Amino acid sequence: MRLIVARCEVRYTGRLDALLPEALRLIVIKSDGSVMVHADHGGFKPSNWMVAPTTIEEGDGHLVVRKFAGTTEDRLDIAIAEVISDVTHDMGEAAALEKDGVEAHLQELLAEQPHWCGEGFRLVRREWPTDIGPVDLMCRDDEDGWIAVEIKRIGTIDAVEQLTRYLERIRLDPAMNVCRGVLAAQSIKPQARVLAEARGIACVEVDLGVLRGEREPDLTLFG
Q1: Weakly modelled stretches of the chain, pLDDT under 50
Q2: Considering the entire predicted model, what is its pTM?
Q3: Which of 156, 179, 215, 216 is 20 to 30 Å from 45 by CA-CA measure?
């Protein structure tokens, strides 16, 4: 992993245009080609970023990061005025992130009973791979439509963002360009529901006790 602290200007072009004026920033370049530009504020979220796979070109005072998606190109142009620090660290082979016990158990149970994620759903594969990580379940519905299901203990805005990124990668395949998304969790935050609805992602709250067969699902009475 390469860490560069530099006074720089960052210009993004692609789906929209954005400019970060010259300031002191941290540039993180990962071995997989992901690039993040951080300021000393704003919490953990970078000011701008590009996820792998990318093409990185470096010249005198410039760093250009390109990402191609079909005929379109996203591009970060980083103009470096002054380098304060430029170090590279060998991070070794990282162990894969493991879900906590509840999420792992939810995934296992929902893989066996995918109808709880949506009527008529049938499992195609657990841990469906994308180039930015695996989505928990890939299912198909009664009409053979594709559905990507992300499973969380608590559904948050970050979970919606994560599933959005997975859907962007999955939909690059012409055969899956209308793949739908479902966020399944024991509880889902109201803000996450609003964002999910705006992005066409369905939200499903699941009961671990019902999935385990420890109790019957609540019945809804219709008058």
Answers
A1: 95-98, 100, 219-223
A2: 0.55
A3: 179
Q: Please state, in angstroms and rounded to a whole number, the distance separating the CA atoms of residues 131 and 52.
A: 7
The predicted pLDDT at position 105 comes to 84
> Which value, to the nearest 10 degrees, does the dihedral of the CA atoms of residues 154, 158, 161, 163 take?
-40
Cα distance between residue 62 and residue 51, in whole Å: 19
pLDDT of 221 reads 41
10 Å Cβ neighbour count for 31?
11
Residue 151, beta-bridge partner list: 184
Cβ burial 138-174 (10 Å sphere, 16+ → b, else e): bbebeeeebbbbbbbbebbeebbebbbebbebbeeee
Query: What is the C-alpha to C-alpha distance for residues 198 and 144, in angstroms, rounded to an integer?
Result: 24
Instruction: Characterise 210 by phi-psi region: left (phi > 0), alpha (psi -120 to 50), beta (else).
Output: alpha
